[in-house]
Amino acid sequence: MQKTNVTIYDTTLRDGTQGTGISFSVVDKIRVAEKLDAFGVHYIEGGFPGSNPKDAEFFVEAKKRTWKHAKLAAFGATRRGKLKVEDDPQVKLLLDAETPVVCIVGKTWPLHVTEVFQVSLEENVAMIADTVAFLKKHGREVIYDAEHFFDSFKDDRDYSLQTVIAARDAGADLIVLCDTNGGTLPNEVEEITRDVIAKLGAPVGIHTHNDSGVGVANALAAVRAGAVQVQGTINGYGERVGNCNLIPVMANLQIKLGVGVVRDLTKLRELSLFVDELANVPHDIRAPFVGSAAFTHKGGQHVHAVQKLARSYEHVEPEVVGNQRVTVVSDLSGQSNILVKAKELGFDLQKGAQEVTEILKEVKRLENDGYEFEAAEGSLALLIRKILQHHKPMWELVEYHTTFRRSGSASCNTCEATVKLRVNGVDEYTVAEGDGPVNALDAALRKALLPFYPQIDTIQLQDYKVRIIDGKKGTAARTRVLIESTDGHTTWGTVGVSDNIIEASWLALADSIEYKLLRDEKS
Question: Domain spanning 396-522: which superfamily?
Answer without folding.
Answer: Alpha-isopropylmalate synthase LeuA, regulatory domain (3.30.160.270)
